[in-house]
Every structure is written in structure tokens, then in C-alpha cells.
């Protein structure tokens, strides 16, 4: 047996020692042990089963996994979990080393964006795809910072992770602010060595370090399934838009109100806007405007401020401009005056999924 197993079980204590040493850098409660088996051991194992004529036998690696797992479980607060472990301990029999795969930590929250010109996530340069070129000044990015990177810069080191990905419930335009209640998101922290950072302190850190750019609220640990739920959710949104009328003629306030009344409750047929046609399928989407009201009006300056609540997926800038007839009806067409959005803010994302169902 010793020759067949290459002395594998004579080294159990050594494997336990290596595993505990590898785990010493990690904070975790649950784990799973796995083994990468060499080709020679597999051949020997098959030979043993053939000689013994066994109709059923448990793989040698399963026995080693169990023995090492039992010893790790003796550590205070550590339990084996075969479904959703915090990390996986891999006994690599090829290299005689122990590898640790730390599963991601997921954090739900809402973010606010106070400054225009910041994308939600990293936006790699289209020319070099992140490698760096003259177009992007060798940064590899179209924009120097993003909501994702600002949060990551503040938090990633706290979790001692290798990377952080932000999954958002939709996204606002780069030149739009995200105000009000904020946009729901889930942070995915990859390969963390820490898993239980105080999220109240983490929230304060992000908000203090990025006070003039972004803020986060309501941070809480959630299960992985929250990502898919958030991505598939259709959240209605409320916007505030500053509109400028492209005319030298007088635009009457009552005419603007009447046009907004016509939009209120209307089903909008919107062909994919020209500005995003290069990255979106050319479709006609039907979306509804729930409410549309005038906040302020300045006839002399040909300007107005409006608030609109609309279905998820409705392009607001084109709802105002009409996009040369690709959006019907539009404020432009109803007024008979060219209009365009000069500033846009998202005030609310109506996200009604019970986060408590996904809390850890």
C-alpha cells in the first residue's frame, strides 16, 4: 500500500502543517479541502483497484481531504462547508504545496455621485484596450477615475483583496450626477484575506476620502445571488433635467406645461439613440413616462428645469430632443421647438428587491 500511495498518508501531518501555515494569513469561518493528484498516483490507484477486484473504492484524495479537513476543524470556529465555503484549501501533490482560493466577499449599498464626468466603472481605452497608447496618454483608460475605482482605492486594502468589481443597478450617463437616495450596487471583492471589516467604518472612509466626488450608504454583507438579482431588476428612475430651448422666439410656460402633461402617462416608442447605436442593438423600445412636471421656468433665458419619473431603460436626453424623430413622442415634437438637455441628475432609483433576503 505504501508503494501504491507513494507514502501519501505517511505525510498527513506534513500536509496539515502546510495547510495551517497557508491559512494563517486568512480570516475565515468555513472551508473546503481539495487535492490535485499527480498522474502517477492516479495510475497506481487504478492498478490497486484492478488487482483487488474492488467494485467500489473511495479515491485516495478523498481520504486525504477528510483527514486534513478534520485537523483544520479542530481550530476554533472553523467548519467544513461543502456548498459555500469562505475558502478552498488545495493540496497540490504535483508541487507538494498548499494553495488557498479565497471566495469573494459581496457588499450591497447605494452610491451617490456628486461630480459630473465620472463613469460608474473602469472604462478602458478603445484604441489600446487598456495597454496604454498616445490616445489615452498611456493610462490605458478613457477616464482617469470611476466610482468603482474610487471605492476600491478606499476599501480594497482593508479587505486585503486583489481586485474589486462594482455591479450596478443600471448606470447613469458620465455627465450626469447620481443624487437623492443613490444607485444600488454590489461590490465583489476578489480573493480577500479579510472578510469582516466594520462596514460603518468602511462607509465613513469612502465618504471622507471622496467627499467632493462620491459617497456610499447602507453598506451590508450579502450573498453572491444578490448580484444576479440586482442586474435583472427593472428599476424606475426619477430625473431632474435642465433644458434649453434652441429658439429666439418666446417659449410660453403654459405650452411647456401642456407638453409635459402630454408626456405624463404616455408610452414612448424609442429607437436606439444615435449616441449609443455603436454599442447597443438597433431596436425600438417601448417605455412609459409615469410623471412629468415643470420645476422652474425662465422665459428670458429659454430655459426650464423639469422632473420626470420613467420606466427603466428610457433614454431621457432623447425624450427631450426627439433624436431626429427616433423617439416618439418627445418634448421637442410636442412643443414644435428644438430642446436639449444641458444637465441631468438622477434623483431616485426605485429598487424594491428585499435586500434582507440576501443578507449573510
Task: Provide structural commentary.
This protein has 360 residues and is an alpha+beta fold. It has helices at residues 2-5, 12-23, 39-52, 60-73, 147-159, 199-209, 225-232, 253-263, 316-321, 331-335, and strands at 30-36, 79-80, 87-92, 97-102, 105-113, 163-168, 177-190, 214-222, 236-245, 267-271, 284-298, 303-310, 327-328, 339-350. Strands 5, 6, 7, 8, 9, 10, 11, 12, 13 and 14 form a 10-stranded mixed β-sheet that branches. Strands 2-1-3-4 form a 4-stranded mixed β-sheet. Helix 2 packs across helix 4. The protein is elongated and about 90 Å long. Residues 1-5 and 45-49 have low confidence and may be disordered.
Gyration radius over CA? 28 Å
Average residue pLDDT: 90
Sheet/helix structural class: alpha+beta
CATH topology of the largest domain: Alpha-Beta Plaits
Q: Element order, helices and strands?
A: HHEHHEEEEHEEHEHEHEEEHEHE
Largest sheet: 10 strands, mixed
Distance between the termini: 45 Å
**Oligomeric state of the chains in view:** single chain
How is the secondary structure organized here?
Blueprint: H1 2-5, H2 12-23, E1 30-36, H3 39-52, H4 60-73, E2 79-80, E3 87-92, E4 97-102, E5 105-113, H5 147-159, E6 163-168, E7 177-190, H6 199-209, E8 214-222, H7 225-232, E9 236-245, H8 253-263, E10 267-271, E11 284-298, E12 303-310, H9 316-321, E13 327-328, H10 331-335, E14 339-350
Parallel strand pairs: 1-2, 1-3, 7-14
Antiparallel strand pairs: 3-4, 5-7, 5-8, 6-7, 9-12, 9-14, 10-11, 10-13, 11-12
Helix pairs in contact: 2-4, 5-6
Amino acid at each position: 500500500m505504501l508503494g501504491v500511495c507513494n507514502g501519501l498518508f505517511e505525510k498527513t501531518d506534513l500536509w496539515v502543517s502546510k495547510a495551517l501555515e497557508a491559512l494563517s494569513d486568512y480570516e475565515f469561518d468555513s472551508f473546503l479541502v481539495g487535492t490535485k493528484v499527480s498522474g502517477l498516483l492516479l495510475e497506481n490507484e487504478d492498478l490497486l483497484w484492478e488487482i483487488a477486484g474492488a467494485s467500489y473504492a473511495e479515491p485516495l484524495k478523498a481520504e486525504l481531504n477528510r483527514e486534513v479537513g478534520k485537523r483544520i476543524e479542530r481550530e476554533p470556529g472553523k467548519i467544513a462547508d461543502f456548498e459555500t465555503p469562505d475558502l478552498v484549501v488545495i493540496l497540490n501533490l504535483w508541487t507538494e504545496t498548499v494553495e488557498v482560493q479565497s471566495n469573494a466577499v459581496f457588499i450591497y449599498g447605494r452610491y451617490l455621485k456628486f461630480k459630473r464626468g465620472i463613469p460608474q466603472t473602469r472604462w478602458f481605452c478603445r484604441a489600446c484596450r487598456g495597454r496604454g497608447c498616445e490616445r489615452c496618454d498611456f493610462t490605458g483608460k478613457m477616464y482617469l477615475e470611476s466610482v468603482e475605482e474610487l471605492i476600491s482605492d478606499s476599501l480594497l486594502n482593508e479587505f486585503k483583496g486583489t481586485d474589486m468589481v462594482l455591479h450596478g443597478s443600471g448606470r447613469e450617463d458620465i455627465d450626469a450626477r447620481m443624487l437623492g437616495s443613490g444607485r444600488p450596487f454590489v461590490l465583489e471583492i476578489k480573493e480577500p484575506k479579510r472578510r469582516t471589516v466594520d462596514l460603518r467604518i468602511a462607509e465613513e472612509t469612502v465618504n471622507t476620502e471622496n467627499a467632493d466626488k462620491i459617497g456610499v450608504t447602507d453598506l451590508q454583507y450579502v450573498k453572491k445571488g444578490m448580484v444576479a438579482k440586482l442586474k435583472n431588476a427593472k428599476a424606475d428612475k426619477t430625473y431632474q433635467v435642465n433644458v434649453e430651448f434652441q429658439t429666439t422666439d418666446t417659449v410660453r410656460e403654459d405650452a411647456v406645461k401642456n407638453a409635459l402633461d402630454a408626456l405624463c402617462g404616455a408610452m414612448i416608442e424609442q429607437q436606439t439613440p444615435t449616441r449609443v447605436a455603436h454599442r447597443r442593438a438597433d431596436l425600438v423600445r417601448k417605455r412609459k413616462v409615469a410623471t412629468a412636471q415643470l420645476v422652474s421656468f425662465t422665459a428670458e433665458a429659454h430655459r426650464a428645469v423639469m422632473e420626470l419619473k420613467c420606466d427603466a431603460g428610457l433614454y431621457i436626453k432623447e425624450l427631450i430632443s426627439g433624436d431626429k424623430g427616433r423617439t416618439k413622442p418627445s418634448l421637442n415634437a410636442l412643443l414644435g421647438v428644438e430642446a436639449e438637455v444641458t444637465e441631468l441628475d438622477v434623483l431616485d432609483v426605485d429598487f424594491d428587491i428585499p435586500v434582507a433576503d440576501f443578507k449573510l
